[in-house]
Amino acid sequence: MDYLRYYLGALIIFIGVIGFYLGGAWVWLGASTFIPLILIDIFSEKDLRVRSISTPWLADLPLHLHFFFMLALYAALLYWVKAEQVATQSIPISYLLGAILSMALINVAPTAGIGHELLHRRNPVSRFFGTLIGTFVADPTRDVAHAHTHHIHLGSVNDSDTCPRGKTIYSFAFSATWGSLKDFYQMEKARCAIASESIFSPKGRIFKAILQLGILLLISFLVAGTYGFMIVLSSLILAKLFIEMLNYFQHYGIVRVEESPNQSHHLWNHLSPVSRVIAFEITNHNDHHRDSYIPYYELKPHLTGPQMPSIFLCFLSGLIPPLWFKYIAKPKLKDWDLNYATAEEKVLARAANKKAGWPDWLAEPET
Questions:
Q1: What is the pLDDT of residue 305?
Q2: Which residues of the chain have pLDDT under 70?
Q3: Which residues contact residue 173 at a Cβ distance below 8 angstroms, ignoring those fewer than 6 apart?
Q4: Angle CA(215)–CA(216)–CA(220) in degrees, nearest 5?
Q5: How far apart are CA 35 and CA 18, in angstroms?
Q6: Given this model, what pLDDT does residue 86 score?
Q7: What's the helix, strand, coil split of the chain in %, to 5?
Q8: How far is 76 from 367, CA to CA, in rounded Å?
Q9: Angle, CA 177 vertex, CA 176 and CA 182 arms, to 5°
């Protein structure tokens, strides 16, 4: 089971393919698959097991096959769009929404987690596949800012992936997207200056990223017309926003003194069973920031750092900000401030609480 559990992503894609093959209201099948997975994750006990993997290539196989699985999913989508137009000349809005949501959710889970894992590998072939997979989340250059900004500056004001206290999931999705793109552009511009290249050189990442997205959208239009183009473009944009929304919960509100060591209390762990598997251990967060080259199946769950409930529960509550702030964010961050923060971090935390309009619980007498 330590191998098979990570083939859940392939099963989700297969279910999505079946939904598009059957057509009609079945296009919602991919999206509806997440309902039982979310419920299992929310109501299950934490998964604290260390995986027992003695044959690494079996654990890596679903990573490197995933790009081809996604091509099959997109082929099934475009087949359905083309067949639906031939049969009815138009596609009902409810079917369009089902197709967009199914594609967007699968683009995020498990696709984003697999892309993240591959981009952290030293093997150039794995990194190449990770870059290709980035196309499905409208972010083929995510690895640049992620590795050179987030992993260095997490918890500080210089990290656009760390959400400050008081900010909602909605505003963060856009600010994090802009921050990541800005960081990438600045780094790419500096690289091109050193190499004496144009920033839009065919050798550069901007040209390659535009080419990847352009090919996907062009094929969608040529095969399935305006409907195909619209569904693919909408699902890519929605997937990108969903990724940032999930990223919102990984470091929410945590503060760190810039250039101080990254430690286990500078991140949140979400150790529920489905989220660990479907995200390829992104939510098993501790070891990953200790050493980003550790393969996902070697990451060990740690309870020494601060813990969050199921990331799916966080996501659902985050959609209604008053619920998120009252029942999860503020209680968890109060505990973090009192029990995890260093003396210097307590100063930053008090300033962050004041800026967010939150209570100054660090000024309260100890009980």
A1: 86
A2: 365-367
A3: 241, 244, 245, 248
A4: 115
A5: 17
A6: 85
A7: 70, 0, 30
A8: 60
A9: 95
Global pTM value = 0.95
Nearest-angstrom CA–CA distance, 354 and 87: 60
In whole angstroms, give the CA distance from residue 320 to residue 68: 36
**CB atoms near residue 330 (< 10 Å):** 19
Phi first, then psi, for residue 172 (nearest 5°) are -65, -35
- The helix or strand, by DSSP H or E, that contains position 269, with its residue range, turns out to be strand 269-270
Centre a 10 Å sphere on the Cβ of residue 40 and count the other Cβ atoms it contains.
15
| Measured distance between the N- and C-terminal CA atoms of the chain, rounded to whole angstroms | 46
**Runs of H (alpha helix) within 248-342:** 273-278, 286-290, 311-318, 321-324, 330-339
Neighbours of 91 (CB within 10 A): 18
Dihedral sign, Cα of residue 15, residue 246, residue 151, residue 189: positive
| Total number of domains constituting the chain | 1
Identify the pLDDT of residue 366.
60
Domain of 27 in residue numbering reads as 4-363
Per the DSSP assignment, residues forming a β-bridge with 307 are 269
141 and 134 Cβ atoms separated by less than 8 Å: yes
Cα within 13 Å of Cα(258), Cβ side? 6
DSSP structure class, residue 305? S
Residues recorded for the chain = 367
The CA distance from 110 to 114, in Å, is 6
Which phi and psi angles does 8 have, rounded to 5°? -60, -40
Task: Quote the pLDDT of residue 88.
Answer: 80
Are 266 and 333 in contact by the 8 Å Cβ rule? The answer is no
